[in-house]
Structures are given as structure tokens and as C-alpha cells.
Amino acid sequence: MAQYLLSVLADTTDLATAEEMAAIDVFNEQLQAEGHWVFAGGLASPSTATVVDGRDGEAVFTDGPYVESKEFIIGFWIINAPDLDVALRLTAAGSKSCNRRVELRPFLGE
Amino acid sequence: MTDIDEVIIRAHREEWARVVATLARRLGDLDIAEEMAADAFATAVERWPVDGVPPSPGAWLTTTAHRKAIDRIRREARREEKHKEALMLSDTSQPLGAIDDDRLRLVFTCCHPALAMEVRVALTLRMVGGLTVPEIARAFLVQETAMGQRITRAKAKIKAAKIPYGVPLRADLPARITGVLAVLYLIFNEGYLASDPDKEAVRSDLTAEAIRLTRLVRALMPADGEVAGLLALMLLTEARRAARVSASGELVALDEQDHGAWDRELIAEGHALVRARLASGQAPGRYQILAAINAVHTDARDVRDTDWSQVVALYDQLVRLDPSPIVRLNRAIAVAEIDGPQVALAEVDGLPLEGYHAFHATRADLLRRLGRSDESRAAYDRAIGLAGNTAETAYLIRRRDQLARP
């Protein structure tokens, strides 16, 4: 069993509509019922981010995201799946439920 | 070339995909499978001239590659505990009967939709076709190092993302088949018009391999029109193979081919497939149209009997599906037979195909027919400079040298 990160991509920080939220709930329940669920969450706007560099002496805090980009991650799922074909099917369903593009990326192997 | 060299080359042609596919299933690792297969062939080059050729070269290669893989996994297992698991999965007693399916598994893995199209093609040619990285790089006009990296990255993604090694679920098959067909057709074309000047002009191993794999895919998806179309296209093209290269190793153009040398059995099979598709009443896809064009060509008793208006009509249908410059170039060649070389040349000029030898060869022929010898000669020179295939180069040189001297 492998773990995958499903990053929800968007170019606005608009919250999900009530309809989208309902579809996401259905999808989350499906993930849990079928044993794929690990974790999921929505993220606040990139402008709320702080970049922290604690590598050298006193930590340096920088207001804002580490990279300004047109598209950013507004939420994510972490799932378990036996292989990429299953992960792709689940990601397609997830993308449909939240009505946004989703990047599927594997975690490093066991 | 000694006899033993020939035996090794033949073994490579015939056994490469089997060795890789069998190992990939046993080990669950495409990268190790490829590396150990290559290692086994290198060992054969060393051992066979000394020990003699084993009675079953394929079995010898698979066993040798597998043994090398086990040794390597054992070595690594000392460092990394997890590889013990892989060792336990391997099973040297796998029946040889499962081999054909392994090759198909390999095809579907290499053609996975999570891989970019050019990556699928490169990977399939390397893993299934057994072409070397330089050969693949040449086939796609990219640098050797770039092609090597493309294949390495693909194998890394298959492993990290866990692209499954298997035939997709029936529900996923139609979507997965399109990429597989494109790859098979490219392998066929590489065999039909080998791009390497050091290779035989027609590599029947690759055309036969492409046909064999296409037959397998057709057995899996008997109702798919495009699979049938691609198989018909390959058969009707393959049928003319013997007539296509002269005894002196020169390409013979369609209008000069000895129709008696065509393989009637393959033509009959190809025609039957095309007729069955026409009878289905379903709108044809790209391969079915190309097969129908080849059916018209192989139907003609003589090139003068060719129904060119039918050919142009089919190309019109194809242009609607695929308006690429290469399709328009081929359409123009048929147009020349109906409306003359002047009209065809107007359609050819301006196509963005400067780096494609067939573009210049077509222009050269049209200019020759128009009596514009100097321009024709220049176009032949461009075509000769770009053509990699030995038979094609010989043909182009002869045609150029037949032009009236200035």
C-alpha cells in the first residue's frame, strides 16, 4: 500500500460552495468506507503564510508564501492506495467533488 | 559477422522483451529487469563463443538475468532489509507459458496515461522493442543524453508512483488503448523504415513484433475498430515488404513495385479486416482510414489502376480528424495523381516540415515532373542529407542522378 498526496489547486481563495462542500463530504465518506482515508484539510489563503528559516541562529520570519504563484494549494487529501491506477481513479473523483484541479503525488516509498 | 554474432543478434531480437517482461513480473522492478537483461546479453556475448550456444537461448538468458538479479538483490538486502521481501516474491519456477501475457503487461505499463506520450513511446521501444537509446533518440530527433534521461525519469516515476505492472481493468481499457496503438504504430514504422544507416533497411523483427503485439491487443479487444484498423494497416504495409527493397538494397517506390512479390495472404487478411470495419457502419478512426487507403493501393492490379480519387477522399476524411502537416503532405502526393504536380506542389510548399526528409523527397519528385531540374536536384540533396534509411538514400541518389544535367 502506498500513500499519495492530493493537492487541490486553485487561482482564487474562494471557499467551496455549499454544493461543492456536499460533494466533498460524500467523497470523504467514500474514502473512509473503502479504507483509503488518511487525512484531509482545507488551507487558508497563501497571504496568511509565514516562511520560517531556523537553520542558522535566531529564526527569521518572512511574511507571505515562499513563492508567489498564480496557482496555489488550497487543500489536500492524504490517501492510501495499492497502486497509481487506484489513486488516479480516486483523484479524478476528488477533483470532481471539489470542482478543482488536483495534483497527485506519491510519498517516498516505505 | 561470424555465425555466433548472428545467433546473439537474433537472440536479442527474439528474446529481449520476454526476458525484460518475465523479470519485471518476478521482481516487480522494471529498472532492475532492464539492467539485468542487458547484463545477461553481455554475458552471452562473452560465454557463447567459448561454451557454445545453449539449446534454448531464451531460457538461458532469462535464467542468467534472473540469477544476476537475485545476486544483486541479496547484496542490497544486506544493506537494506526491505529488499528481502522482493527476494521472496521471485520465483524461478514460473511456467514459460505466461510469457506472452507478460509482454502485454509490459506494454500497458510502458503506455500508462500518467506518462507523457513521448515518454510512453521511448519506454516501449526500449523495454518491449529492445531498441537502444541512440536508436530511439534518432527516431525522435532528440539528443541521446536527453532520451536517456527521459527513460530514466520514466522508470523512476513508475517505481515511485507505483504505476501497476499489469493489463488495466476492462472498464479502463478503451481509454488506455489509444496510447498503446500509437506506440505500436511507431514501432512498426521504425521497423518498416529503419532510421539507422548502419541497420538493415527494413527490420522485419520490429514490424513482426509490432504485428504480433497488435494481434495480442486485438485478441483482448476484438470489438475495437481502431485495433482492427491498425492491424489491417500493418498487414497491408507488411505485405509489400519484399517488393519494397530491390536486390541491390534500394527502396522501390510504390509505382515501380513488382505486385507479384506482394504477400497475397497478408493482403487478403488486411482486406477482410477493412471490409469488416466498413460493414460495421461505425465512423472510422485514424488507423481505419489509413488501412482503407492501403486497401485501395493493394487492390490495384497495376499502379495505373489505382483509384486515386478514392485515395484523396480518404485523405480528406483523415485531414478532418488529424490536420497535421504530415497527413497533408501525403494527401498532396495523391492529389498530384489527379490534379497534377503543379497543384500538389502548391499544397506541399509552406508545410512546416523543413526537417523531414519525405517533405524534400516529395518536393523533389514534383519538381522533377514539372521539369524544374535544378530545384529538384536541390530538393533531392536536402532529402538525401536528412534520410537515415540506407535503401531510401540509395533510391533518392539514383533519382537525383537521373535528372537532366544542367
TrEMBL record, chain A:
Coiled coil: none annotated. InterPro entries: Dimeric_a/b-barrel (IPR011008), YCII (IPR005545). Residues 16-93 form the YCII-related domain. Belongs to the YciI family. This is YCII-related domain-containing protein.
